[in-house]
Design goal:
The protein is mostly helical. It is built from seven helices and no strands. It has two domains: 47 residues; 132 residues, no CATH class. Helix 2 packs across helix 3.
């Protein structure tokens, strides 16, 4: 009977911890994301959605701007996870590649711009602590991580374009590369 009681207590504790985590999100990340969403929509309203669409159209024409510059600006200005929302301005064909590059960039920029993805800063700081223990420069690590990330995220986004084309052809789907 003791095992059944311990199992039941552990089972309930699992849901209690889940509830505590949920409440911490409701008082932590959810309001931040909501305010970023409000700020982004305010900026878009002030600039005009047409101008933002034109910027996205210009960015969509070139893989470097689409998978390197636009994700960088989005991550720097909006942080994770809001940066992904900039993909809504791209044509359907390029959205998967943008999301791939964007999600990766939110990780590889932590050393130089910790505000982009503070929830995962512990990963970078763990590596940086090891580098510091070895007597090496942490700033050099952060800049190299950012530069390698920019190149690799660009490649990841572009490769996703080829994957998207392959899957679309396989499924008989046509995704638009331009806006109407």
């Amino acid at each position: 009977m003791e095992y059944v009681v311990k199992f039941a207590e552990g089972f309930i504790k699992l849901f209690q911890l889940g509830g505590e985590t949920f409440i911490s999100w409701m008082t932590g990340i959810v309001p931040v994301v909501l305010m970023l969403l409000v700020a982004m929509n305010t900026v878009i309203a002030l600039l005009g959605e047409e101008k933002v669409h034109r910027l996205a159209q210009v960015s969509a024409k070139n893989p470097v701007t689409r998978y390197m510059i636009l994700p960088f600006i989005s991550a720097f200005m909006l942080g994770n996870p809001m940066a992904i929302s900039m993909g809504r301005f791209l044509p359907e064909y390029y959205k998967p590649g943008f999301v791939a590059a964007q999600m990766q960039f939110c990780h590889t920029s932590n050393g130089v711009f910790p505000h982009i993805n503070p929830g995962e800063l512990f990963v970078y700081l763990g590596i940086a602590t090891g580098i510091q223990t070895l007597g090496l420069n942490q700033t050099e690590l952060a800049i190299r991580y950012l530069l390698v990330g920019l190149v690799m995220n660009f490649i990841g986004g572009w490769v996703t374009d080829f994957t998207t084309a392959y899957v679309a052809k396989q499924q008989g789907i046509t995704l638009k590369k331009t806006f109407d």
